[in-house]
Design brief:
The chain is mostly helical. The chain has 2 domains: about 50 residues; about 60 residues, no CATH class. The protein is rod-shaped and about 70 Å long.
Length: about 130
């Protein structure tokens, strides 16, 4: 009940910057489950939350995670591309490799497998290294 009243009062603050500051202070005071509930309610009114420090931080974290995943996905594709260019394997072998590299989440393991794809003397050598990883 109190949270609903506070949210209603925040919506009445005419100055967007003041609303954002008040919301940031309120978020710092709330336990996590209350924050989730409040954010869900406030998202209905995007003008209230759009440019608060809290949401800027969440958006930046999301962008950073997206960039990291994008880099890993690009490196996974590079492994398949390197094998395609070097050894011209069959579609079945490429699919097997692609499925395997998609399971990798550790950046160091992906980098290591990419190096193996570049350095292997043969496709069989790469596949042997892949099964040992």
């Amino acid at each position: 009940m109190v949270l609903d009243a506070v949210v209603a009062r925040l919506r009445q603050v005419p100055d967007p910057q003041a609303r954002a500051r008040l919301l940031t202070v309120l978020l710092a005071l709330l336990p996590q489950e209350d924050i989730v509930t409040m954010v869900e309610r406030l998202l209905e009114d995007e003008t209230l939350l759009f440019d608060t420090p809290y949401l800027r931080r969440i958006r930046e974290q999301g962008r950073e995670e997206g960039r990291e995943e994008g880099l890993l996905a690009a490196r996974r594709r590079s492994i398949v591309d390197a094998l395609t260019l070097r050894f011209a394997p069959s579609a079945a072998v490429l699919q097997q490799v692609a499925q395997y590299v998609e399971t990798l989440t550790d950046e160091a393991a992906i980098e290591q497998l990419f190096a193996v794809a570049i350095r292997s003397a043969s496709l069989a050598e790469f596949q042997a290294a892949m099964t040992q990883a």
